[in-house]
Amino acid sequence: MPLPPARPSRVRQLAALAVVLMAGAVATGCGQVDETGAGVRVLITTDQGARTVLDRPGVRASDDEPALEVLRRAAKTEVDGRGAVTSIDGRRASGDRRWTLWLNGSPMRSGALAATKQDVNLQQLPVLDTVRTTKVSEGDTIWLDLGASPVVPRGVVGTFPEPFLHGQEGKRWPVRVECGEERAQACRMVRDALVRYGIPAVSNLVRTSYNPGSARIAVGTWVQLREDPSLGLAERGARTTGIPVVPAKDGRSIGLTGADGRVTRTLGAGSGAIFAARWRDEPPSWAVTGTDDAGVLRAAGALDETVLKKRFAVGVDDRGAVIGVPSQAAPARR
Asked: What is the pLDDT of residues 221-269, one digit of tens each?
């Protein structure tokens, strides 16, 4: 299968113009988002996005309103005394199946991330915000999934262009595209994809600058990206980090996990992946990566709303076929 083509030069020109126009706003930090009348999208799925229960845009909401109030306008929702969702439209959490919440593709956390005694680098979170404490703004997407993931994923790609479009708590993060190679075609494709959604971004080489206030998309082979503190967590495995893509340390293969967090499929030469991660209390980081340049190109071609829709992460094999991650086993009985 031929590699995905670069976007037209006109789009690249628009990308450059957008960067120039927004450079001042990006340099100064988060920008306020005005989405008056847009409402909130409520997405409810089961089994790691395999089944859609509800996908309703434009649900009425006020800025800084608790997510629970918005959710109850869209579906019959029950919570326990701690604010954890126990049932949505009769689908109950039970056993190891629980409802997991993401706001614009990222989990909401109570306070700053704190290191655990077990692993100071992993920076796991002991407490997640609930639907009672999470505040939404117009334009946001609330996603709840009922599944049995061993660890809450540090981010999901299935609501792209979120989290880059609206950020969280009514503020948009500045966005950076970090490139493994300065003039790589895959990096241009990622920038062009952001332009299609009206997202301005600045570019730099991987690990040549540091801005803890920016959301990032890193584009390159895994060998080029693996030293990144956030993305490099993926090598530790899904059962530890919640990242369902597990690249090999030598970058020659990429493991894709099942619902239990164990690798069920391994991709080799010419393959790629897109996954989300997060380091400490910084904004989200995404990887558009591959085993080699051909794999990175294939992954960059998959950075599209329709391709990523309702998926936690994706792999792309050496023929360009997109594989949803986690791989879907037979859904558990409700």
From this structure: 999 999 998 899 999 999 888 899 999 999 999 999 998 899 999 999 9
pTM of the model: 0.84
Residues 93 and 229 in one domain: no
Omega cis (within 30) before 163: yes
List the domain range (segments joined by +) for residue 49: 40-147
Dihedrals phi, psi of 31, to nearest 5 degrees:
-110, 145
Residues 166 and 188 in one domain: yes
Has residue 333 been placed in a domain? no
Any domain includes 105: yes
Q: Which residues contact 212 (CB under 8 A, 6 or more apart)?
A: 282
For residues 166 and 261, membership in a common domain is answered with: yes
Residues with Cβ within 8 Å of 143's Cβ and at least 6 positions away in sequence, in order, are 43, 44, 45, 101, 102, 103, 105, 156, 158, 159
H helices of 134-207, where? 185-196
Torsion (CA) 144, 146, 150, 156 in degrees, nearest 10: -30
Lookup result for tokens 């049995």: 148
236 inside domain: yes
